[in-house]
Structure prediction request, 218 residues.
Amino acid sequence: MATTTTQDGLAAPGSGLGGWGAMVAGTTVGGVLLGVLTNLAQGRLPGAWNQLANSGAVWSAVAFAAGALLAVGSGSIRRSAVGGLCAEAGLVVGYYGYAEAGRDGMGSLFFPLVWLGMACVAGPLFGVAAYWWRRGEDVRRRVVGLAAFAGLFGMEGTMAARDLHYASQAWSCFAVSALVPLLLARTHRERALTLATAVPCALLAYALVELPLRAVSA
Prediction:
């Protein structure tokens, strides 16, 4: 395994080209497999719950998880960002690839390209958010990183309530948005700050993501 030397003289495993290649391959393949699973789940989940199988919040949660895992040990913010990107892009490829090969086809390339473009933004963004939450020395970064993740589900809940009128899904998403800070923040103060910050994050995400998507779909 390729290594580099850290400031204290110890070798950091997996930080050379070989480690980067394995990381890129692993997160991409994992994303592709999860993309296939979300496509399958969309056909099996009951009723309106199908919407959650390919929701932006659920997909971006994969990028956050990849970024958090890559932040462990000698992980760097760059690795978390690239890992988030690969996982998110892999999801899009897996989802639409299965739609093309295993179903009736993906149809127009417009929406796959739209989601792929969004993955190139959301993947690194939530990979970095996970790194800030996991390794941030500054309370503000830990709060913002976790609030961005919680805000995803607040955005999804807002969409379910306002646009789709799915009350049960909306309440479920709002519950997850509240549970993320309660379960993952380090202290009571950080929990309170994260909950308060997640609200504007959710509204901002809704304005930047859902409103343009509605306009495109109209």
Q: What stands out?
A: The radius of gyration is 18 Å.
